[in-house]
Amino acid sequence: MAARYLNDTEIAKAQRDFELKKAAYDMEVNTKKAESDLAYNLQAAKTRQRIKEEQMQVKVIERTQDIQVQEQEILRKERELEATVRRPAEAEKYRLEKLAEANRNRVIMEAEAEAEAIRLKGEAEAFAIEAKAKAEAEQMAKKADAFREYKDAAMVDMFLETLPKLAAEISAPLSQCKKVTMVSSGKNEMGASKLTGEVMDIISKVPHVVSKLTGVDITHSMKLAQAAM
């Protein structure tokens, strides 16, 4: 019995030792496992963080690249705008300004030329009027001298010079008549000879009219002029 009891005791002790060792082992295993899990989780968290950081870095790089692309596109559009709109607009503006300036200069030159032409024309007309007036004055002076020197003869000359004009003025109304009807008893002249006679009768009365108006006897003056010849 004692041997069996001793044996059971040994077995129980061994069992207890085994349980203790097993518990210690399990605890160590669990600790190691917990540490391993913690290390894994920590590493996984670090890895995820690093991945996120790398993803953020990628996004930053992508955003930076997008900004650069946008900036390049803006520069491209700016250059395109400069080449297709601004420069042609400035060139057109410059062309229009030069054209306007040329037109303005042309108008000024034309106005100056016209003013100069008007001035020269005015001077020429003034010179012509002055020359004509001078010639007429000289002619009138010569006529006055002739009248003073020759008196009756000069008067006769002026009368003879004026007589054709006077006859033309007297007969001018007849030239406006389209039809003339004359009635005669048959004893006197008629037709064209009648008209001519009346015109001549009017002209023959001119010396008498002149004598009445001016006191100059044209007929007497003509006789004196013929006697002087």
UniProtKB/TrEMBL annotation:
Single GO BP term: positive regulation of endocytosis
Coiled coil feature spans: 44-87
Recorded GO CC terms: cytoplasmic vesicle; flotillin complex
InterPro entries membership: Flotillin_C (IPR031905), Flotillin_fam (IPR027705)
Keyword Coiled coil: yes
Assigned keywords, A-Z: Coiled coil
Pfam families on file: Flot
Domain Flotillin C-terminal: 112-214
GO molecular function: protease binding
Family the UniProt entry places it in: Belongs to the band 7/mec-2 family. Flotillin subfamily.
PANTHER family, per the entry: FLOTILLIN-1-RELATED (PTHR13806:SF46), FLOTILLIN-RELATED (PTHR13806)
Protein name listed in UniProt: Flotillin-1 like protein
